[in-house]
Design a protein that fits this description.
five-stranded mixed β-sheet; 2 helices; 92 residues; Archaeosine Trna-guanine Transglycosylase, Chain: A, domain 4; mainly beta
């Protein structure tokens, strides 16, 4: 039984290229969604001034959470998780 969740989360446009091109492979988030290893993430890219969706190729991609870290110096109620493009899993 697959219990992975799909999380659709906002990401400011200034970070979108770094995620898309694999330079930014982690997210720091409030853990209000119960992020878990193997959950899926899709990004809604927003502009930094009006917080409205903008067109960006990242919005067509899906990422898998590969590791979740909390505690160990991370603020309470926050989590750091690593992500990997699902498309890359098929190219290994």
């Amino acid at each position: 039984m697959n219990t992975a969740k799909l999380h659709k989360i906002k990401l400011r446009e200034e970070f979108a290229d770094a995620v898309l091109y694999g330079d930014k492979t982690f997210e720091v988030r409030e853990n209000d969604r119960g992020y878990q290893k193997d959950d899926l993430v899709q990004f809604d890219v927003i502009d930094k001034y009006y917080h409205e969706s903008v067109s960006h190729p990242l919005m067509k991609e899906t990422y898998r959470i590969t590791y979740v870290l909390n505690g160990w110096g991370i603020e309470p109620k926050f989590v750091v998780f690593s992500i990997k493009n699902v498309r890359d899993e098929f190219n290994e």
